[in-house]
UniProtKB/TrEMBL annotation:
Localization per Swiss-Prot or TrEMBL: Cell membrane
Protein family (similarity comment): Belongs to the UPF0410 family.
Keywords noted in UniProt: Cell membrane, Membrane, Transmembrane, Transmembrane helix
Membrane topology: Multi-pass membrane protein
Transmembrane segments: 6-23, 30-51, 63-83
Gene Ontology CC annotations of this record: plasma membrane
Protein name (database record): GlsB/YeaQ/YmgE family stress response membrane protein
Pfam families registered for this protein in UniProt: Transgly_assoc (PF04226)
Length: 90
């Protein structure tokens, strides 16, 4: 159970960081929110790909759910920024 939580945090960090790197412009969010949105994006992306019939019959690293997780995390970060509003620094 502990390793599952640790791996979810690590994957969330990777997915969230990649999502922020691929997004244009500057995102003014912290590391913790990046991890949280990355974890949620990864979980929703994996769930969505399996609901659409994805099957990793060859085993190994599941690339498609990872990529979909990054796309979902990008959407979540954009939604978070839209809801929170961007603070204009003077």
């Amino acid at each position: 159970m502990l390793w599952t939580i640790i791996s979810a945090i690590v994957v969330g960090l990777i997915v969230g960081a990649l999502a922020r790197l691929l997004m244009p412009g500057k995102q003014d969010i912290g590391v913790i929110m990046t991890i949280v949105l990355g974890i949620v994006g990864s979980l929703v992306g994996s769930w969505l790909t399996y609901q659409l019939g994805y099957n990793n019959s060859n085993g190994g690293w599941e690339v498609i759910p990872f990529i979909v997780g990054i796309v979902v995390a990008i959407v979540l970060i954009a939604g978070y920024l839209a809801i929170r509003g961007r603070a204009v620094r003077q």
